[in-house]
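#random but structural
TW: two for the price of one
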Amino acid sequence: MSGRVESILSTVGGTPAVRVNRLAPEGINLYVKVESFNPMGSVKDRLALGIIEEAEQSGALKPGQTVVEATSGNTGIGLAMVCAAKGYPLVVTMADSFSVERRRLMRFLGAKVVLTPASLKGTGMYQKAVELAETHGWFLARQFENEANARMHERTTGVEIMRDFPDGELDAWVTGYGTGGTLKGVAKVLRAESPGTKIVVCEPEVASLLASGEKQERGEGGSPAASHGAFTPHPMQGWTPDFISKLTEDAVDANYIDELKTIAGPDAMQCSRDLATKEGIFVGISGGATFAGALAYSRTLPEGSTVLCMLPDTGERYLSTPLFEHVVAEMDDEEKSLSDSTPTARYED
C-alpha cells in the first residue's frame, strides 16, 4: 500500500502472497500469506476492525463505551490499535504465560491488561472478560464466537486469496485455527469459488483437539464452558487455546476441513528459524507451525501443485520465548574472531 489514507485502520488487510523459493519441495509452487504486513503485525488486526465496526453499526457498542476481550496477545494488540484510533477504552484479560512483549505493546497503545493465572488457561481469561463485561457494562468482543470475525475474513482475506489465485489455480490452503475466524471465513469463500482447493488445518501435536473427536462443552452463546479434555500446554501462542471455539466448530460442522495435520513444537520453531534464515521471512512460532504443516502436505502433492500457507504474525512477539533462546546479545566466538581479523575498532568485553 502507498499514498495517503484517512486512518491507520485503512491499512488493515491487503497482505501479500509471497513465493517460497529455497524451502519449498521441488516442483511445488509454495506461497505464504504474510499477515505481519498488517499495521500491528498480525492477522488479528482484521478481526479487531471487523468486530468493532460491526458493533458500531448495530449499536451494540456505544460511543465511549469500554471494550473488553480475552486474548493471548495479537487480538488485544489489534483491538488496542482500533480502539485508540476510534476513541474507545480497552481492557484485555490475558493468562500470564503469554509473552511479556505482548502485554507491553497493548499497554503502550493505551489498553489496560488484566492478567489471569496460567493454571486457568484460556478458559480462565475468557471467564474473567465475561465477568468484567457483566459487572461494568462493557462491550465484550467475543472473538471466538462472534460472526463478525468470520465475516471480516470472508470479505477481505478470502477475496484477496481468490484475487491472487484465480480460476482454480490453488490446490491447497493451509492454516491453523485459533479463534476459527480465518478458517470459517476463508473456507466459505473457497468452497464457493474454488471448490477444488483442499483446506488443510493444523493443530499442536500435544493439543490435538479436533483430531481427538471430543466435543467441546459450551455455555451461553457458544462460549466455552470448560477446558477441552485433549488440551495440554504447547508453545504456539494464539494457535489453539484450551477449547474449540464456536467458529471453529462451525467450520467442522460445515465439512470445510479436508485434512488435519498435527505439528510438534520443535518442528514449529525450526520452521520459523528456517523461514528467517533461508527466506528472509520473519514469523513467530505459530507461523512456523503452520509452515511445517504446509511443507508436510506439499510433499504429498504431484509436481506443479500450488499451495498457500497462512503466516499469522511477526517474530517480534516471541523475543522472550524459547524461539529466541539461542540468540544472544553479545558476540559469540566466531563474531569475536571476525572482529579480531582486522586491526581497528576491536570490541573488548
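TW: number two ↓
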Amino acid sequence: MKMSPTKKVVIVGGGFAGLNLAKKLANNNQFDVTLVDKNNYHFFPPLLYQVSTAFIEASNISYPFRRMFQGKKNLSFYMGGLLQVNPELNTIDTENGSLPYDYLVLAMGTETNFFGLENVKAKALPMKSIDDALHMRNHVLLKLEEAVRATNIRDKERLGNVVIAGGGPTGVEIAGMLAEMGKNIIAKDYPTAKNAQGKIYLVDSGDTLLGPMSKKSQDEAYNVLHKLGVKIHLDTLVKDYVDDKVILGNGETINSSTLIWATGVIAKSVPGLPAEVITRGRRILVDDYNKVNSYNNIFAIGDQCMQITDLKFPNGHPQLAQVAIQQGKLLAKNLVNIISSKPPIPFIYNDRGSMAIISKFKAVVDLPKGFFKGFFAWLVWLFIHIIPIAGFRNKAKLAFNWFWSFVTNDPTLRLIIRPDKGNK
C-alpha cells in the first residue's frame, strides 16, 4: 500500500485554538506541523489581570512551546510574526523568513481596539499580553511610589486614581483585584499615603456590567464592586485621555495617571487575504468546517474567525477560550478526515457556561441550566482555571501561590523591574 506524502500544516498563533490543534496532531506521521508565533511561549489570557496586579508570577501562566513539543517528532516551533499570506504560492512570510504549507491555519486571535482614539492608544494600558501585564504592574507600583512622595493632595489623588474602561469580565476582575489590593495591601505598604489613597473608577458604555452574562451575575458584580468602593459609571464612554485627564462622553473628567483599557478587541490583520473574506471586527469568514471562504487549504479558528452557520450563533460565536479550544480540537479531526477522503464534521459550539471572579471569595458562574455565586463559585473558578494551565509544575506553583496570597492578604510580587534599554 502506497503511503500518501506527509502534509505540511502551518499554524499561525499559539493561543488556545492553535495549541489545541497542534497537540491533537502530535505524533501523527501524516502531518508535519509547524506552529508560528511571535512569542516563544503559550500563555493563559484569563489570568493576565492577576499578573498585572502583582498577585501571581508571569511564569505561572506561561510555558515555552519548545518544552511542550519535546518528544513530539512531527511538531516544531518557528518564532516570528506574520507579515503576509501568499495563497497563490502556498507560503507565508514572517519576520524571520518564509514557510511553505499544504494547509494553513490562522489562529492569531485579537488585539486591543482603541476605536481610533489616538491619545488613548498612546497612553492607556491595554491587557492583551504578558508584556502588557508586566508593564501595567510596573506602572501601577511606580505611581504609588510617586503618590507617597507627592506633597500636593491633588497630585496624590491623581497618582492614586485608577480608571478602568470596560465593564466586561476583564474590567470587573481588575477592578475587584485593585480594590482588594487597596483594602488589604496598600495601607500596609504605603502607610503615609493611605489618607490620600486614590479611587477606582469602572467605566462602561453599556447599561450593565458583565454584559454577556446573566442578570443575576450582572447584579452581583455591581453590588460587590460597589461595596468595595469602586465608582461605577454606566452608559458612559471614554472619549479622550489628555494630560492625565480621562475625558468622558458626558463631559465629566477624572484626574488619573492610570487609564486601563479593557474594552474592545479586533482580530489580528492578515495581509494577503482578499477584502471579501474579512467581516466586522476584522474577523475572517469561514464555513461550517472553519475553512476560509474561497479557499480549500486555508482555515481560521478561534477569536480570529467568524462562522455564521452554527444555528444557535447566527451572528458568530463569542470570542471565548472554550470556542477556540473546541474549534482547534475539531479541526485536527477534520484534517485527518480530509486527507483520508472522509467527510469533515461541521463545528457546533457546546456552550458550557461562563464565569467571572469579582473579588476575594466572590465569583459568579452562569451555566446553561443555572446560576450560582459566592464562595462556592469562587472555588469552582479557581479549580477551572488551574486545569488548562500548561505544565504540572505551573499548576502546582499557581495553586500554592493562590493559597498563600489569599490566606495572608499579602503577596510578595510587588517588584518594579525595568530592563535597562541602554545596555542591549
